[in-house]
Amino acid sequence: MKSKEITTVAMESTGDYWQNLFAELVKQGFEVVLVNGKFTKHAKGKKTDVKDCRWIQQLHTLGLLSGSFLPDETTEKLRTYCRQRGNWVDQAASTTHKMQKFLKFLNFRLDVVVKDVCGLTGLAIIGDICKGNLDPEKLAKHRHYNCRKSEEEIAKALHGNNREDFLFGLKQEYETYLFLQKKINECDKQMEKFINAELKKFPAKKALKTTDKPHKRINKNAPKIKNLNQVAYQYFEGVDLLAIEGLSHATVVSIMGEIGPEGFKKFESAKHFTSWLRLAPNNKISGGKILSHRIPKGSNRLKIAFRQAANSIGNLKDTHLSNFFKRVAYRKGRTAAVSATARKLAVIIWNMMVKKVPYLPPTEYLFLDQKRKLKVVARLKKNIAKLELKPEDLGFLPTLIPTN
Fold first, then answer.
1. Are residues 332 and 218 both part of a single domain?
2. The domain containing residue 233 runs over which residues?
3. pLDDT tens for residues 149-174?
4. What does UniProt give as the signal peptide span (predicted)?
5. Which one of 37, 300, 382, 404 has the lowest number of neighbouring Cβ atoms within 10 Å?
């Protein structure tokens, strides 16, 4: 190819076997355009590999092919760890369902008395069952103090038939679940190690500090990276993504692994970014009339993360984004509201990353203890006004200002 003075190459991104060839061509100094296969499939006549190559070469010569988004090498390495972790989480979820199935076969209705079978109470009870303890009263002793059901209610749900084959299946699934959790923890450690190694290369980033967010809930499936709030703030060069209500630690890690801090700059505007995510309407216009405006099919991992964040935003109260969610949901339903809020979230994050615009919603987000404090203050003010009390009646003496 170099002897023929070729400088640029276009290739389809079909399957996984293109990756080694792509990396080698880039290493040799060629300008490589990686193209989605749907843009190159309209060649006339019978389909052959030779005709495909000629058609792609002709389109590339005329400048009719646009390259796909590819992250930088650092983001690509972190993405490998994140996606591997996601695969383990999916397998753990499947194993959880199998454990629930065997518990029902054994007539242990643990799912009725415990919200999460794989929570602290559930795992302790399942582990004891696998060890051979089948006494309902003793199993109920594993109740965590946060569990809503009492020990008596839990014991009533644990009178099983004790079949050996079902007990064997439950034990194997329980051991598989523990193995998968071990693999997930290994991925978390590797991700933390990789991110900290990247931050050490830039001392200016390590000096950045953000406000603590102790009220952000951390899901049990969230990546266990120490002080992720500060780490993400430093990784994104002073952009505080966790300041957005409803944005979880898992969503931030997905952004770090799928696109990275430099990936946002490859999109000219927020509209280009939302279009790449397939969150923008695909308007089909003919004769000045819009025939269709449905969102295109396809879901990458970043789109799924934004939609999950949007769904959690819909469960919040009295916030800027949750109010937007409920306005759309009232008119078009919750499904449309999830897509609309995910797009709005993507636009906000693009502006924060590219234009360095801080997130300043018109309605300030208040955490639970802040809301309780405001309610207590409002109730006290109401009672003081009702009883017509004065500061002197409450024992508060007015401050005297000395005069010369």
1. yes
2. 204-283+296-354
3. 999 999 999 998 989 999 999 999 99
4. none
5. 404
Counted domains in the chain: 3
pTM here is: 0.82
Q: Based on the domain organization, do 174 and 157 belong to the same domain?
A: yes
Domain contains 113: yes
- Looking at the structure, do residues 224 and 326 belong to the same domain, yes or no? yes
Tell me if 102 sits within 8 A of 130, measured CB to CB: no
User: Phi/psi zone of residue 163: left (φ > 0), alpha (ψ -120 to 50 degrees), beta?
Assistant: beta
CB 276 within 8 A of CB 267: yes
d(Cα 39, Cα 274) in Å, to the nearest integer?
Answer: 20
Of 123, 175, 171, the closest CA to residue 144 belongs to 123
Evaluate whether 303 touches 251 at the Cβ level (below 8 Å). no
Q: Exposed, middle or buried: residue 226 (CB in 10 Å: 0-12, 13-18, 19+)?
A: exposed
Q: What separation in angstroms does the CA of 38 have from each of 27, 41, 63, 301, 312? A: 27, 6, 16, 20, 34
